Every structure is written in structure tokens, then in C-alpha cells.
Amino acid sequence: xxxxxxxxxxxxxxxxxxxxxxxxxxxxxxxxxxxxxxxxxxxxxxxxxxxxxxxxxxxxxxxxxxxxxxxxxxxxxxxxxxxxxxxxxxxxxxxxxxxxxxxxxxxxxxxxxxxxxxxxxxxxxxxxxxxxxxxxxxxxxxxxxxxxxxxxxxxxxxxxxxxxxxxxxxxxxxxxxxxxxxxxxxxxxxxxxxxxxxxxxxxxxxxxxxxxxxxxxxxxxxxxxxxxxxxxxxxxxxxxxxxxxxxxxxxxxxxxxxxxxxxxxxxxxxxxxxxxxxxxxxxxxxxxxxxxxxxxxxxxxxxxxxxxxxxxxxxxxxxxxxxxxxxxxxxxxxxxxxxxxxxxxxxxxxxxxxxxxxxxxxxxxxxxxxxxxxxxxxxxxxxxxxxxxxxxxxxxxxxxxxxxxxxxxxxxxxxxxxxxxxxxxxxxxxxxxxxxxxxxxxxxxxxxxxxxxxxxxxxxxxxxxxxxxxxxxxxxxxxxxxxxxxxxxxxxxxxxxxxx
Length: 500
Fold this sequence. Notes:
This protein has helices at residues 15-29, 55-62, 67-73, 110-119, 131-134, 164-177, 224-229, 293-302, 347-360, 369-395, 403-410, 415-427, 440-449, 466-486, 490-497, and strands at 8-12, 34-39, 77-79, 81-85, 93-97, 159-161, 181-184, 187-192, 199-204, 209-211, 214-217, 234-236, 245-251, 261-266, 269-275, 280-286, 313-316, 320-322, 326-327, 330-332, 338-339. It is an alpha+beta fold. The protein is globular, with a radius of gyration of 23 Å. The chain has 15 helices and 21 strands. The relative contact order is 0.18.
């Protein structure tokens, strides 16, 4: 006999994680399920996750959200990648762009031909070979022309910058229109069954008991359910990712609406710049082992482009993850499940993939262990792959101007990352394993941008004469350049389509 259905779902916490979960489940499950979200207006959310990756478009599309309406409602702008400054060495600048670079030839990936000419000292700028990195350098943006699949204009990839608080409000309206019940209150006790530790209800400060079958922990880094009540251990990544503090502050817009998140490395961390329609979001992520709070604040405030609109807000975190994101009848989503640091804008993406996995493996009331184990195995694989690329940003540096960068440059890295580095250094080989988030193009851009030198390339890239390869690379650059020329500026595109 199969066990009965889960019927009542309780989400502990609002913010981006809580309301993304509520909106997605209300859409995916339809009628017949009671979804209740408990949050307190007196408990703040982190709210700095204003930069995203392209997968969020799939999330919004699955909910049936109109993209222009969403951008207007969240004061949003568009993002074609992340621009890194001063990472591999002071003075460096490169863009980790979304989308493709060049096109394969004779079944061999484009970058092997580019590497062949690069090693011969005859290749141009790799960024000129992709519309997703060439366009931001001129502050150009448009959506992909789906009627032009053979043109770079048909392969424009993008994500968003937005106000995370406004996005949560947007999704709250969406969810409540579909029957989600919001309960105002502060959770003071998690009531568990004595026999097996399953959660029965959440007791609020008012005395109200909120009972359910499935509980989703969106309580942020407090991990009120998965950590404090269920006792799931935390795996600490701080020996690889030493940053553990951030200061966030908005400032007036400078008018520079480049469609990328900017990440500028400082002596013990880095600073983000996220352009919105109404303001610029800024923050300084740093390591308390190598820098004091006052110095970090001075660096942040002295590098703003406009008048600050608030005092810097401090945030403390420990990079890592819960060793099980799903334990008994509790699933952690968002910061309750884990956090790297914001360098590649993966926080909201991890919320999205947690929700997707939960829907895929949605339980019956019996909570079969096989489903839980599969969820946790997929989560562990995803965390490890994303973790490695983020570590690469800090490991791959020539900087020796501070103890922080000395530590990062000399630290041992996971075997999985070391294998990728060895493989690329030998003959420029990059492989995407299973369905991991970062693809070959991402690894290529970060490794090349931060001076990881490939000593060779695929031997099949030698089948073409050098003159043909040079002509092939030049043609890619020429076509990309012509396409960028016809694109509107980012500001023009927003004004014409989705100005707030």
C-alpha cells in the first residue's frame, strides 16, 4: 500500500527563498495542497542577492511571469556576465560572460583553435569572440533574436540585477493569489515527534501552533529547523573560501548602466557593483582573519560612484553547507541549506535548484528514504562543482600584495579542482560532468582570465593550415563586432521596454 499524500506544507521564513518556494509550489502542486508561510516583519532578511544567473529566466517562465513586468516591478536591469577586475593580478580585467564563445570547427571546440594561435602569439582577445562579452564592453544589450539562429544575435544570454526585497514582494502577490497563506509571527519552538524527530508543528510567539506534513526551512543562516532543531551538521568551507564578512550599501546611480555585475578585488576580499534602475548596489566581501571591519568599511565607502543612500549594513557568514539538505520531513532552501559567497551570483540559483529537486522528488506522507537520499546526493554533487569554480577565483592569482592573497595563492585545493587545473594545463581540455551548473565556457573564461596557462591544445586543431585557422578566428571576431554595432545600449533597451 502506498502512503497517503503530503497535504500541508509549512514554509518557515519569507524573503527571496521563502517566497520563491511558495510561488513555485503553488504553481507546481495546484489545488489540493495547503501552503502556509510563516514570517515575522521584525526579522530582517539578507537581501543582497540582487545579481542572478540565466536560469532564473526558466523559473520566471515556468511561473508564467511576464519578463518586462517583472523587470519594472523590481527596478531591474539586465546582466550578461560578471566583470572581474584585479583578480589574477592588479590591473587585470576580464568578463565571465554567459553563453557561447565562437563555434566548433570539424567537431573540435572553438577554444582549441584559439589556444593554438594564442600559444603562437597570434590570437586576438578571447572576449571579442563572444557577443556576451563583447557587447557589455560597449554597454550594449538586447534579447536574443530567435529568428536568427545562425547569428551571434540569436545566442545572446542574460540574467538580471534586481532589488531582492521587491522580488520577494512580487512573488508574495503571485503566491497569495494562488492560495498561499501568510502567517505573521516569530517561531519560538519547533515541536518534534518523540519517536522519530519528525517535525509536527511550529510554535509561534503568540502561542499559535502551525502544524504540517512537510516543513521547508527558509530561515536563512539561522537554519532554525534543519540545523537547530534537526541537528544536521554543517560542512565548513572556510579553509578554501576565507571570506566571512560583508558590508552592503546602496548609492545613487552614476548613469553607467553596463550590463554586468562588477567584482573588483581588494587586498583582503572584493567589492561588488550591481546597477539597478533606481540605484547602484554595492558591497565589500572580506575576511575577518585578514582585515578589520573599520578598514573594510573605509575601502567600500571610498570606492562608491555616487552618494551613499544608507549606512553600510554588516553581514556575517560561514561558507559551507548542511551535509543533508533534506532530513526526515524537513527540507532546507536558500541560506539555511548553505552558502558559498556571492562572487558568482549563485545564491538565488541554489534556491531555484533546491525547489526544482523538491518538486521532482516530492514525497508522500511516508517520506521514503530513497527519495531523500537521491535529493541529498544531487545536492552534494551540485555544491561540490560550484564550490570548485568559486575557489578557483581565489586560488588562481599572481597577487602577492597582501597576506590574504598569499594565503589564497598557496592554499591546497580539493582534488576535483586540482584535476580540472591539471587537465586544462596539459592540453586545454575542459569537461562538464553530468548536469553541473558551470559549463566549459565558464571554466575557460576564469582560467584564462586569471592566468592559468594551457601548454597545449587538442591535436585535431592542427588539421587545418594556420592561415585557415587565423581566417576562421578573424571571421568570428568580425561577425561578433558587426552584431554588437547594431545593438542598442542597455539604457536604451530598458527605456524602450521595461522602465520602472
